[in-house]
Amino acid sequence: MKRALILLSGGLDSTTTLAIAKAEGFEPYTITFRYGQRHSIEIKAAEKVSSIMEVKGHITVDMDLRQIGASALTSNIEVPKKRTPGEITRDIPVTYVPARNIIFLSFALAYAETIGASDIFIGVNVLDYSGYPDCRPEFIEAYEKMANLGTKAGVEGKRFNIHTPLIRMTKAEIIKKGLELGVDYSITHSCYDPTPEGLPCGECDSCILRKKGFAEAGMKDPLISG
Asked: pLDDT tens digits for 133-163?
């Protein structure tokens, strides 16, 4: 089996991406990031997902992006609540973490090269997303080119491929695909601003888009009441 590294936050999209990688016959490894995010409960979700979905290996990388700040996820900026889907996608929101996917993919690339994985999966999406510039196809294409220019494996002809299976899927389509592959979405976590008990707020952009996806898929989100 070819090894693949999946960036896993413990959320709906990345968990579905992991399921797709497994369905495509890859031997899955997962990488999660503890970067000072206010919703650090997602790290436990990623660990649980990795265990239940029986990945070959899982690591959590520590860094502190609170030193940089400038995001509602890594500083005291208030997380937007109760916005409509139209408002969510209108502008780049304050939940944008500066260069986050560039940083994450760089760590993932280093780890992938170390374990001999030429395939990296990331659950970015350009349809039902919050306007993040590092979720666009042109960014992924540019990063893949850079990865093959700037690594030992790349210059020796062991080409890296960055897979984005969800890139043009709606949230409803993602959910349906995951369910087809047996994903248990009750073990995932998506909320940007969970309660002290770790429950989703149901009002942040991530919760709203997730709930909208389940509704359009004709079912109820197992994590959000109402």
From this structure: 999 999 999 999 999 999 999 999 999 999 9
pLDDT value for 127: 79
Residue 99 DSSP symbol: T
How far is the C-alpha of 169 from the C-alpha of 176, rounded, in Å? 10
Q: What pLDDT is recorded for position 91? A: 86
Residue 88: its pLDDT value, please? 86
pTM greater than 0.90: yes
> Domain-by-domain residue ranges, the chain?
3-216
CATH superfamily placement of domain 3-216:
HUPs (3.40.50.620)
